[in-house]
Structure formats: structure tokens, C-alpha cells
Amino acid sequence: MTRDFCNLNRAEVLELVADMGQPAFRAQQLLGWVYGRQQLDIDSFTNVSKDFRAQLKQVIHMPRYKIVSVQQSQLDETRKILLELEDGQRVETVLIPINSKLSQCLSTQVGCRMGCTFCATASMGLRRNLTNSEVLAQIFAARELVAPHQYITNFIFMGMGEPLDNYEHTVRSIRTITDPEMMGYSHRHVTISTCGLVKGIERLAKEDLPCNLAISLHGVNDEQRSAIMPINRSGGIAALMGALRRFPLSSKKVITIEYLLIAGHNDSLEDARNLVKLLRGMRCKVNLIIYNSHEHADFSPTTRERALQFQRILAEKKIMTFIRKSAGADIDAACGQLAAAAKD
């Protein structure tokens, strides 16, 4: 049985090459082809011999996926890519345009078991975790579609699934993305978004992995948050806020607080004032997100006027606050709308 090359870290690639009786520089050649040139066809590795290529095919294979469909928003040119994996399971990834550059929203699971009632992915339940390679396959697939003048500059682990519920593969994929000998992106361009798994946040705090951290908060007290986010019932907001306050940040970084505004649930002006109290003293910024409707949940979005009032209360207390534009809402690609058709 062959091994998936993109499940290997740099040290494991070096070990693979050594086990094949090849010099260490062969590892650099392989990494250069796969991650530098985004080439997944072993036969195209023209600076290595045919014999070595034949050897490679006996021990490794490249990510196996198929692009099933690509939908493009008529509102903002966001693209939603549906991928089918080797076992027939399907995941979605989203390319979001920002001027001539792109951000990519990556999935880490087929479905999700967190049960957030506002999220379409939760309606699938958890089918399985993605491997490191299957996370990276989303990047390779996206690169097949982008124009030569476009460049994917940011990766946000905010697609299908909870990244910290698939901790090992999430961290390994980020290490591949940020390793200078592999994809070579700066940690500043990678964000993990979590619903608030406290043990996962605490574990991440001990990693040498200074990427950005975003928290889906969506409530200002336990009753309010637990009603739409079952994960809050284990520990509550106090435990979550404690983990965030202890999370190590470099001098220029802040934690991003994602706050979904749902009409009649968490969008009152009193909620805004309570959010100010909750965040007092924390190095953070707040992204307010007007709820994106979908068929899997019966909530209503707040009004634009109320979102502006909510933002004003936070801004008056010197909390950096943005109303985040939801990209791709017309193709169900916006926050909380991903729910790929998966194999049973």
C-alpha cells in the first residue's frame, strides 16, 4: 500500500527518501515540485530520473480528489468548490476575492458534531475527519481554478467542521502551509476559527504555531450561547474567556471574536453592552456577522440598522469592531451555509 505524500511532514519526506537509498537533496526536489510548483503528477518531476520516479510510484501517491462542481456568486465573484474525496465523501471549500488576491476558507471535517443550531454543516452530523492531505487537497484544487494574476494569500480554517475537533490533522496541515520548505506562507496569513473547544485552545496555546485565532462567540451569557451552541454546556463562557485571556499573543496580534447577529436572540442593545463587559481588557477585535439564512435553520437575520447600533456601542468603548460582509450568500457559501452532499 502506498502512502499519501501530502500526509508527510518535511522530516518524514527526508526519512522516506533516505529509506529509498537516495540523497537528502531529493527530498527538496520533491517538495519543490509538489508545494512550489503545485505539481501532483510524479511523471512531471523532470529533474529526477525515470527509475526514481518509478520507485516513487511504488511507495507514494498524491492527493486523490475530484472537483465535482464550482459555483460562482453573482454578487461578489466568490467561488464555492465541491470536492469528492477518494471514498466518495464530499466537502466544500470557498474562494473569497479581495481585490486581486484571494482568501480560502478550508474545511477540516465531513460534517460536524458540534451541533450549532444556526449552522447548515451541523445538519449533516459528523461523517469523518479529513486527513492533512485532504485539507491540502482543497488548496491544490483551488489553485487549478485561479487565474495567473490571482494569488491565494490567506487561509481560514472556517469551512465545514470544527478544526480543533480534528486537532492533529489541522495542526499538521498548518505546519505544511507555513513551513518555508513546503508552502511557505507566514503564520500571519493563517487563521483557525473555533466554536470554543477550551481544551483544544489550551493545547494550541502550547504549540509553536503562532497563527491567528478566531472564536465563534455568538452569545453574551451561558443561557443565550448554550441555546444555539451546545458546546457551551461544558464549561460555559467563563471557561472559554479564561482560556482566551491566557492564550499567548505576539505584540501585534489580537483574538478575533466572531459574533453572529440573530434577530430577537442576541442582537439587543443590552446584549451589545454586555459584550463590552465580557471583552473588557482583552486584546481583541470583533466581527459582527448578520445571520445568513438557509433551509436547515429557522432563524432571522438582524437588520442593518441594528447591526450599526450594535457596532456603535462597542466602538464607543474602544473595541475595534467591523460588520463583516458575508461573501457568496447567493450560492450558500457564506458563514454557516456550507453543507455538502455526502456519501452515506
From TrEMBL:
Its main location: cytoplasm. [4Fe-4S] cluster binds at C112, C116, C119. Its cofactor is [4Fe-4S] cluster. Keywords: 4Fe-4S, Cytoplasm, Disulfide bond, Iron, Iron-sulfur, Metal-binding, Methyltransferase, rRNA processing, S-adenosyl-L-methionine, Transferase, tRNA processing. It is an enzyme of class 2 (transferase). Residues 98-330 form the Radical SAM core domain. GO terms for molecular function: 4 iron, 4 sulfur cluster binding; metal ion binding; rRNA (adenine(2503)-C2-)-methyltransferase activity; rRNA binding; tRNA (adenine(37)-C2)-methyltransferase activity; tRNA binding. It is found in: Cytoplasm. Its EC number is 2.1.1.192. It comes from the Bacteria. GO terms for biological process: rRNA base methylation; tRNA methylation. The keyword Disulfide bond applies. GO terms for cellular component: cytoplasm. Reaction proceeds by a ping-pong mechanism involving intermediate methylation of a conserved cysteine residue. Belongs to the radical SAM superfamily. RlmN family. NCBIfam families: rRNA_mod_RlmN. This is Probable dual-specificity RNA methyltransferase RlmN. The lineage of its organism: Bacteria, Pseudomonadati, Chrysiogenota, Chrysiogenia, Chrysiogenales.
